[in-house]
Design goal:
five-stranded parallel beta sheet; five-stranded antiparallel beta sheet; 13 helices; about 25% strand; binds adenosine monophosphate; binds glycine
C-alpha cells in the first residue's frame, strides 16, 4: 500500500514511525514532514491545505490512502473533496469535523445526545448583553471559548467577573478574528484531565486506543502559559476499568451513535478531551484527530499493525480487527526552544540525538540543514521511552534528554509526577 501522511509535527513523526513498521506499506510519503520524518518515508513539499495539489500528487505517486494528521484540512473538507475519487482517506468529513471546528456545534451535539459536559451558552455580538448577564449567574473562574479554530489559543479562563466581561466583549469584537464571532461561555469544571482516542469507521464499529494525559502548561507544577503540550504519559492510572466503562457507555457510544444519526460521516480518530470530576468523566472538548504530544506516547503502546486498522477505518468496516495495547508504560517529554510559547529563535543546531539508545526521538519542530538537524519550531523534539512502569519510562526519557542539546533547549522536569505519585 502507498500512503500519504499529511502534517509536520511530533504527532506525524509518531504516526509515520508506526505506519512505517507495517509490512503492508510499500511506500510512505509525509507532506510536508520535518527533519526527522525522512527516516520513515519520503518527505514531499506539499501543503496539507492545497487539495488540488494533493490530488495531483495522489495521481502521480499512485497513493492508495491519505492519513490526515492535523485538524485544519479536515475542518476545510479534505475528506469530502476526495469522496468518490480513487483514494481512501482516514479522517472525518467536514460535517464530522465540526465537532472540533465549532465549539458551539460540539456543545449542542453533546446536549442533544445527553453526553456529560459543562453547562454552557453561546453568544454573538448581537447578544453581548445577555452574555454579560449569563456571566453574572456563574461562579469564578469563568471559561470563555472562541467557537472556531484558534490554534489552541481560543480558551480563556478568567478569575474576575469584570475581566471576564471585558474579555467577552473583546472576543466578540474580533480578538480571534472570525473564530470568536461566537463565544461559548461554560461552567468551570474541576478535576484531572485525560485524553481518550477512538478509531471509528462510520458504521458503529470502534476501537479504543491507549489512554494518555498531556501537560499543557509551560511551567513545572502546571504553571505559566498554555502550550501545544510539554509532555505526555500513557497509561493514565486513574483511567481504570471503572472509569473507562463510564467513558464508553456515557461518552463514546452516544458520540458514535449521534454522528451516525446526524449523518456526520466519520471515519477516523475521535479525540475526547475528558475531565474526571470526582470519578465522573465529562467532555471538555472534542478533537477530530490524534493529540500532540499524546500520539508520541500512544503509538508506541499499540502492539497491533496500525495500517490494516487505518485501511479498514477508511473503508468503513473495522470488522473484528484487533487493536492491542502494550502492557508497557510510555513517557514523552518535549524539548522546546527558549521563549516558547512566546517568541523564540530558530535554526539552532541539535546535537546528541544519535547518542540516545533507550528512547525514541520523534522530531517536531526540526528541519535538515546540510548534514545537520536544526530547530525550526517551538516544540522541537518529543523524547519517548517505554518501560515496565511509568516511573522508569520517565527516568529513561530524562536520561536521554541529558544527552541532547541545542542552544536554549528547555523542558519540564515534572512530567508524569502527578500521576506517578498517585499510586
Ligand atoms: P480546550 O482548548 O477546549 O482543550 O481548552 C483548553 C484547556 O482549558 C483544557 O485543556 C482545560 O484545561 C481548560 N478548560 C476548558 N474548558 C474547561 C472547563 N469547562 N472547566 C475547566 N477547565 C476547562
Ligand atoms: N494535546 C492536545 C491537543 O493535541 O490538542
Amino acid at each position: 500500500m502507498r500512503i500519504l501522511l499529511l502534517g509536520s509535527g511530533g504527532r506525524e513523526s509518531a504516526l509515520a514511525w508506526k505506519i512505517s513498521q507495517s509490512p503492508k506499506v510499500e511506500k510512505l510519503y509525509i507532506a510536508p514532514g520535518n527533519g526527522g520524518t525522512g527516516a520513515y518515508g519520503e518527505n514531499i513539499a506539499l501543503s496539507p491545505l492545497d487539495f488540488p495539489a494533493i490530488e495531483k500528487t495522489v495521481a502521480d505517486l499512485g497513493i492508495d490512502m491519505i492519513v490526515v494528521g492535523n485538524e485544519d484540512p479536515l475542518v476545510a473538507g479534505i475528506t469530502d473533496y476526495f469522496e468518490g475519487k480513487d483514494v481512501l482517506v482516514v479522517g472525518p468529513t467536514k460535517a464530522g469535523a465540526e465537532l472540533e471546528g465549532s465549539k458551539d456545534v460540539a456543545k449542542a451535539f453533546m446536549t442533544r445526545h445527553e453526553i456529560p459536559t459543562a453547562r454552557y451558552r453561546s453568544f454573538t455580538a448581537d447578544t453581548l448583553d445577555e452574555g454579560m448577564k449569563f456571566l453574572e449567574t456563574l461562579k469564578a473562574p469563568y471559561v470563555l471559548k472562541a467557537d472556531g479554530l484558534a490554534a489552541g489559543k481560543g480558551v480563556l479562563i478568567i478569575d474576575s467577573l469584570d475581566k471576564a466581561k471585558e474579555a467577552l466583549a473583546e472576543m466578540l469584537g474580533g480578538m480571534f478574528g472570525a473564530s470568536s464571532a461566537t463565544v461559548v461561555i461554560e461552567e468551570f469544571l474541576s478535576g484531572i484531565e485525560c485524553s481518550v482516542f477512538v478509531l471509528t469507521d462510520g458504521n458503529g464499529n470502534y476501537r479504543i486506543l491507549p489512554v494518555a494525559k498531556d501537560y499543557k502548561r509551560v511551567g513545572e507544577g502546571d504553571t505559566g502559559l498554555n502550550t501545544g503540550g510539554m509532555g505526555a504519559v500513557s497509561p493514565v492510572p486513574f483511567a481504570d476499568e471503572t472509569f473507562m466503562k463510564k467513558v464508553e457507555e456515557r461518552i463514546i457510544l452516544p458520540t458514535i451513535r449521534g454522528l451516525i444519526e446526524e449523518k456526520r460521516i466519520y471515519r477516523g480518530f475521535i479525540f475526547l478531551g475528558l475531565i474526571n470530576v470526582d470519578g465522573e468523566p465529562m467532555v471538555i472538548e472534542y478533537n477530530v484527530r490524534m493529540g500532540d504530544p499524546e500520539t508520541e506516547a500512544v503509538m508506541p503502546r499499540i502492539s497491533s499493525d496500525i495500517v490494516p486498522l487505518l485501511e479498514a477505518t477508511a473503508k468503513g468496516d473495522l470488522g473484528n480487527l484487533p487493536l492491542e495495547h502494550s502492557p508497557l508504560a510510555a513517557a514523552t517529554v518535549i524539548a522546546v526552544s527558549a521563549g516558547y510559547p512566546e517568541a523564540y529563535e530558530k535554526g539552532k543546531t541539535i546535537t546528541g540525538i544519535d547518542a540516545v539508545d533507550e528512547s525514541v526521538i520523534f522530531h517536531a519542530g526540526t528541519k535538515t540543514d546540510g548534514n545537520s538537524v536544526v530547530t525550526s519550531g517551538g516544540r522541537v523534539l518529543a523524547v519517548t521511552s517505554l518501560a515496565a512502569t511509568l516511573t522508569e519510562a520517565l527516568e529513561k526519557s530524562y536520561r536521554s534528554l541529558s544527552r541532547i542539546s541545542f542552544d536554549g533547549m528547555a523542558f519540564r522536569r515534572d512530567i508524569g509526577r502527578d500521576v506517578t505519585s498517585e499510586k
